[in-house]
Amino acid sequence: MQNISTVFVLDKNEQSREIIKSFVDGLDFVNEVKLYSDYNQGYEEIKQASNPVVIMDISEEPSELREIADKIKLVTSKIIITSINYSTNTIIKALRLGAKEFLPKPVLKEDLIRVLTMLASISPEEEGTPSKIITVYSNKGGIGKTTIAINLAAELAKVTKDKVALVDLNLQLGDISTFLNLNPPFDVNYVIQRLIDKEDSIFIKGFEKYKDTSLYILSDPSYIEQSGSITTQQISALFKKLKKVFPYIVVDMSSSIDPLSLKILDESDWILFSTIVNIPAIRNAQRCLNLFRSRNYPAKKVKIVVNRYMENDEIKIEDIENTLGESVYWKIPNNYFTIMEAINKGVSISEINSESNIGSNFRDFASKVSDDIIEQAVVQYRTRS
């Protein structure tokens, strides 16, 4: 266990601040406690501290809450949220704000000490936000999975305000850099070979930041022959490092089924299995889902995404679900001209027309993915409690 330099208590209620201070005073692993009713003033102090813990109350929901929380998350992941309301919606809100733990009010001394002890055992190098690897996959080419991966990642960055990694693991024929008109100085092969063991701030320099957003892109190898040197062990090491740095990791990969591809799929938290509405694609999907079942993937790991969907298709969503024995998680409308304009201009779809049917669809898609990940965390929290 290491010392916590300072516990910062951000709470509008003076009595609550003093009670928490009385609980923390005397703990031999906490150097000092600072109390603030002004959250902005508290943040200015937090960003100067080394290894701080923040206890932030959201009972009164100050107007600056989201903005302050987004700033605090960049300084530390050791955030405890408190509230007099402990409904599921409040816990979801707390997790969105970056909470490591949620404590209902009135805060109990033993609960607070337990959480502080747990946080003190986490070194700065291990602070990474709990994250998910979301792999967009199809075992058939031409389905549009690269478009899905790019635009989901771009919208996740906007919706969540968190750092999102978009990783091109289509190692021989990756298109992400081309689709976004990027010429990155580094690629996945360079990062794996030279930056994987470096500190997080150096590791992240191997990524190309997309414009003025929190989306970071790791491109495919510059030369096809480099792809053959990447091993399954290196993929595991890359994923482990990514999870330390990024709350969301979106992966695009090839349609192959080989040892490297299976390693990517095995280690993914979610697989967004993409298909379109025609007989050959659905038959291919059937075979692939059977493979996933044979590998004992958890039921909620694989989520079916139907791309280029049209309401008047002869094959209905119910037909697909009956054939595959799985529910469809999301439908993306067919909008060829908007997609092609985005690809030809090297930008995301929302930059072409955010209010188009497909632009708003990807925004809603990202919101659903984020909400579902947070709700899973709430279930885990409830189970743990």
Question: Can you describe this structure?
Answer:
The chain has 385 residues and is α/β, with parallel strands linked by helices. It folds into 2 domains: 4-126, Response regulator (Rossmann fold, 3-Layer(aba) Sandwich), CATH 3.40.50.2300; 132-384, Rossmann fold. The protein is built from 16 helices and 13 strands. It has helices spanning 14-24, 39-46, 65-75, 88-96, 109-120, 145-160, 176-179, 188-195, 200-203, 232-245, 259-267, 279-294, 317-324, 336-345, 349-353, 357-384, and strands at 4-10, 30-36, 53-57, 79-83, 101-104, 132-137, 164-169, 208-209, 215-218, 248-253, 270-275, 302-309, 328-333. The strands form 2 sheets. An 8-stranded mixed sheet has the order 8-9-7-10-6-11-12-13, sandwiched between helices. Strand 8 and strand 9 form a beta hairpin. The longest helix is centred in the last third of the chain and has 28 residues, at 357-384.
Condensed summary:
With 385 residues, the chain is of the alpha/beta class. It has helices at 14-24, 39-46, 65-75, 88-96, 109-120, 145-160, 176-179, 188-195, 200-203, 232-245, 259-267, 279-294, 317-324, 336-345, 349-353, 357-384; strands at 4-10, 30-36, 53-57, 79-83, 101-104, 132-137, 164-169, 208-209, 215-218, 248-253, 270-275, 302-309, 328-333. The protein starts with a strand and ends with a helix.
Please give the CATH architecture of the largest domain.
3-Layer(aba) Sandwich
CATH superfamily of the largest domain: P-loop containing nucleotide triphosphate hydrolases
Number of helices: 16
- Name the CATH class of the largest domain: Alpha Beta
Rg calculated over all Cα atoms? 22 Å
Give the structural class: alpha/beta
3D shape: globular
Strand content: 15-25%
CATH topology of the largest domain: Rossmann fold
Report helical residue fraction: 40-55%
Low-confidence stretches: none
Ends: how far apart?
Answer: 23 Å
The largest β sheet comes out as:
8 strands, mixed
User: Largest beta sheet: what is the strand line-up?
Assistant: 8-9-7-10-6-11-12-13
Mean pLDDT: 91
Give the SSE string: EHEHEHEHEHEHEHHHEEHEHEHEHEHHH
According to DSSP, the number of beta strands is 13
Provide the number of structural domains.
Answer: 2
